[in-house]
Amino acid sequence: MTSTPTTRNPPTSTASSLLSVEGLRVAFPGRRGAPAARAVDGVDLDIGRGEIVALVGESGCGKTTLARCLLGLVPPTAGRVTFDGAPLPRSARALKAYRRRAQLVLQDPSGSLNPRHTVYDVVAEGLRIHGHAGDERTAVAEALSRAGLRPPERFFLRYPHELSGGQRQRVVIAGALVLEPELLVADEPVASLDASVRGEILALLLRLRTELGLSALVVTHDLGLAWNIADRVAVMYLGRIVETGAVEQVLTAPRHPYTQALLSVLPEAPGAPVVLSGEPPDPSHVTAGCRFHVRCQILAGGEAERAGVADACRHRELEILRGGDAAQVACHWARAEQPAAGTGDAAVGRRPN
After folding, report:
1. Average of pLDDT values for 23-27?
2. Confidence class of residue 338 from pLDDT cuts 50, 70 and 90?
3. 3-state class of 239 per DSSP?
4. Confidence (pTM)
5. Is residue 9 part of a domain?
6. How many separate domains does the chain show?
7. Based on the domain organization, do 161 and 56 belong to the same domain?
8. Phi, psi for residue 242 in degrees, rounded to 5
9. Which residues contact 220 (CB under 8 A, 6 or more apart)?
10. How many helices (H) and strands (E) does the chain have?
11. Closest to 174 in 3D by CA, of 199, 145, 210
């Protein structure tokens, strides 16, 4: 984590959620009779109006699949997604209307921009797809200006290859803003940018939240990014959220061993980095017990045994963490050793599988 975090809005309650997920599962069929890969395997999540939530985890944990499912790009195997109080539609016509309100910002601006289209055409594409009835030129200019490309007319006839990486990412953001969405889903929005430009894009997202009331789900493996932009953080491992809460609480006093390991490798972290053994388990062969136990430094070091939960770690599956903004953790050891002060079982937020 780098500097003091930007001032944030207080976390919102479930009752005021813009987007709500309950029991979401996404499985991909295996080849030649192999078991299905459980990419998302039981997730509850809420995003409040005007709230930024960071979804954090290493590659392969299911966070991008979850994000794409929230936009209707990947069909869920089970569970429920609700947007503004209504279930996520399934028909093509209804999904088209929904995507005016929820927009995706991709990781690689070079790959998501058509090199043969001018900046004007890139930004105007969404308006044309959705049959915008107003003044197209004005809408494109306003979107570019909001994304920090000023004066906007100067960029109309440029092509992506004529822009810097930061400018290309701003064009991608402008293409999302032109439809005046209520929710942005940003998948690694600064991963491909130089360090000097990342802060500018993060500041832009915070400004858009303040000026437009936008909500955002920011998918990232970078805990420093989560610290600087998010109100809440949800840590994902092997298809499930294993810890969630206010970003300051989770990232300064992490309770789950996986969160602790992720934080330990940051340059500012005290002590020696925690090196996890092996790769994340195969989502088509989820082991019994806690999903993290085969790599858990707490179990390997004997601390879980001393707390009397080692057997539970190996054999008893943890429940799905519920949505909302309460601090929650899916870890037998954390629940035994580090109960959330003053919250009791409500903070754990358990819900049957």
Report:
1. 98
2. low
3. coil
4. 0.89
5. no
6. 2
7. yes
8. -105, -15
9. 54, 55, 56, 188, 189, 191, 226
10. 15, 13
11. 145
